[in-house]
Amino acid sequence: MNRRIIALLGRGGIGKSTTLNLLPDRLSELGWIEQSRVNHGNGDDFVAVFELNGIRLGVSTAGDNYREVSNGLRLLMKASCIVVISACRSYDKVNPKTGIKKGTHSALREFTNDIIFVRKTIEPIETNRNAVNLNDIARIVELL
What is the pTM of this model? Predict the structure, then answer.
C-alpha cells in the first residue's frame, strides 16, 4: 500500500491545528485506537498514531513551517503510518536569503507525491467555528 497524505491547507492562524485537535475524538468514534501521542510546540500541537484493522494512521497538527511538518511526518513514517493527516500552509514561500522555495508543501513532497489537499474553511463568526471545524473533520474522514 502506498503512503498518502491528507493535508489540511490554509494560511496561518485560521484554525488548522484547532480543527485537527478535534480529529482524535472522531477517529475513536470510528474505531481507531490511539497507539501513541507526543505533544510539542505550543502545547496544542501533537503527533499521534492510530490503528484500525492493522492499518496505521498518523496525525500531525503543526503545519506552519517546513521544520514542523517535516519532523512530524518523519515520526509518523518511522511509526509505519500508511495514511497521514497533516496541517500545511497555503503555499511555499521563497527564502529571500537562499532563493529556494521551501515550506510545508516541500516537506510533504519529501515523503510522497500522493497528497490530497483539503482547504480549511474560514469562519469569521466565532460562535460558528466549532460547527465549521467539525464539518472540515467530516470532509477529511471521508477521504480515509
Answer: 0.93
Distance from C-alpha of 143 to C-alpha of 139, rounded to nearest angstrom = 7
Distance from C-alpha of 141 to C-alpha of 137, rounded to nearest angstrom:
6
Cell of residue 24, nine digits: 482524535
Angle at the Cα of 128 from the Cα atoms of 30 and 43, rounded to 5 degrees = 65
Comparing CA positions, the residue from 10, 41, 1, 6 lying closest to residue 27 is: 6
pLDDT cut 70: percent of the chain above it: 98
Helix (H, G, I), strand (E, B) or coil at 76: helix
Helix spans in 1-144 (H): 16-20, 23-29, 66-78, 104-109, 129-141
Which residue from 5, 2, 7, 57 is spatially nearest to 32, judged by alpha carbons?
57
Report the half-sphere exposure of 30 (CA within 13 A, side-chain side): 17
- In terms of pLDDT, which residue wins out, 2 or 127? 127
The domain segmentation of the chain, as residue ranges, is 4-141
